[in-house]
Amino acid sequence: MDNRPVGVFDSGLGGLTAVRELRRLLPNEDIVYFGDTGRCPYGTKGRVTIERFAAQDIRFLLGFNVKVIVIACNTVSSVALEMASEMSPVPVVGVIESAARAASAATKSGKIGVLGTFTTITSGRYEQALHALQPSLTVTGRACPMFVPLVENGYFGRDCRVAEIIAHEYLDELRGTVDTLILGCTHYPILKGMIADIMGDGVALIDTGRETAMEAARLLEHRGLLKDGGDGSARFFVSDRTDDFARLAAILLGSPIENVGLVKIDQY
Amino acid sequence: MDNRPVGVFDSGLGGLTAVRELRRLLPNEDIVYFGDTGRCPYGTKGRVTIERFAAQDIRFLLGFNVKVIVIACNTVSSVALEMASEMSPVPVVGVIESAARAASAATKSGKIGVLGTFTTITSGRYEQALHALQPSLTVTGRACPMFVPLVENGYFGRDCRVAEIIAHEYLDELRGTVDTLILGCTHYPILKGMIADIMGDGVALIDTGRETAMEAARLLEHRGLLKDGGDGSARFFVSDRTDDFARLAAILLGSPIENVGLVKIDQY
């Protein structure tokens, strides 16, 4: 038993899709979430910058005496997981390995697609992680840079013409060539309905937020670190709070957000 | 005569549209450009964060002994121009006043529209600046949060269906109600053709980068600060360099970019 909180961070609010899954799986756990809204998105930035940002995010969470750190950000997991694991005295769970394991288990044809930001896709980390599990897999990456702005601006309904045109541009070449598709960015599950419509029934969609929450749950259970009952709480911190915050948080978390603190993250 | 360089900064690469105009108007001048690509966009962030970022951007440019600072960023000009003018020992030119003067001179009906990011529009600064010039003006603001991602991802051709749908969503209510439209974000001139098609011939489009370059040129001339001939140079600095950099810079500057330095801006 361990009643310390679970720390979760992301470049912005996308990681709230992982918090939603964590709360569903582990309703007793206390969660501290940090979203680096003052410096998001990370997905368009380079490795050195992302490593510096991630180190600050982790130092902030460690101040809450967390028992595990969940990196609910594909970009950070792609380029800075090793650094994060080295600097953190508590276990670190990233999205890449979690999602790769799920995809490797799901595929029958051995052909897996990965959607993500430019940085995630060009890092090749999903391909590496998948090949470490099964060297024979064929992995096709596709950067989908418009998906985050689409979600954040409300273009995600199944009947949204703009999202449909752009999703077709990104997905048509993948359709029919893979049987498993990793939604390698925490915003993408919001577009899951449309992606499923385009890819067709035979394709398994891997939600990285959900897989990472499951991985964190397994880790806490195996190491005897689960909380000893009681209702779970959630505290949210961001590095910038805009007028738009509540609307966006509700889209991604699936419920209104309360208890939001403002952090000067570049001082960590 | 004054042979010190002209300093220009923006939250990212959008300000390159102003550099393009500056080079056209003042081909002799040396230009130092800083784009805060490591922390862009500013337009979704709050006032306190933007002021802190702008102060660092200005300190960086002052290190080059610049003779004027051009804030080629509507968001910074909206919320941090006063702070910038107070902290800078050299004159500061922002986009808001420059564009407001041009719009006030162009309108016949007294009805002006303003397009910009969420932060620019909710700041109400364009409305304030226009009313300071002509209290009787009617000003209608419209946030266009998808325009920056559209431009940055290549969705800006006059025949681009996605840009057309979104531009209609933003502009249809304004069409026929204003005779002058301020393109209140440095990225928007790239969409000028499509915006002109939707708004119709009778509407004057105010390009804030161009107006700000003209304002800076007037200021240098009036104060006797122009360079004494010779070819102008341009040096570019960014806080993050991604694989995507060259492609984006070419879209916004209109020519390939060279001489790019990397800056740890949070140390300024």
> Roughly how many Å is the radius of gyration of chain A?
17 Å
Shape of chain A: globular
**Share of helical residues of chain A:** 40-55%
Mean pLDDT over the full residue set of chain A: 93
The count of β-strands of chain A is 10
Report low-confidence residues of chain A grouped into runs of 5 or more: none
Biggest chain pair interface: A-B, 27 and 28 residues
Distance between the termini of chain A: 30 Å
Major sheet characteristics of chain A: 6 strands, parallel
Written as H for each helix and E for each strand, in order along the chain, the element string of chain A is EHEHEHEHEHHEHHEHEHEHE
Contiguous helical run count of chain A:
11
Structural class of chain A: alpha/beta
Based on the structure, what is the oligomeric state of the protein chains? homodimer
Strand line-up in the sheet with most strands of chain A: 4-3-1-2-9-10
Strand content of chain A: 15-25%
Can you characterise this structure?
Two copies of one chain form a homodimer. In chain A, 43% of the residues lie in helices and 17% in strands. With 268 residues, chain A is of the alpha/beta class. In chain A, helix 3 (74-87) links the parallel strand 3 and strand 4. Chain A starts with 5 loop residues before the first strand and ends in a 6-residue tail after the last strand. In chain A, 54% of the residues are buried. The mean pLDDT of chain A is 93. The interface between A and B is medium-sized, with 27 and 28 residues.
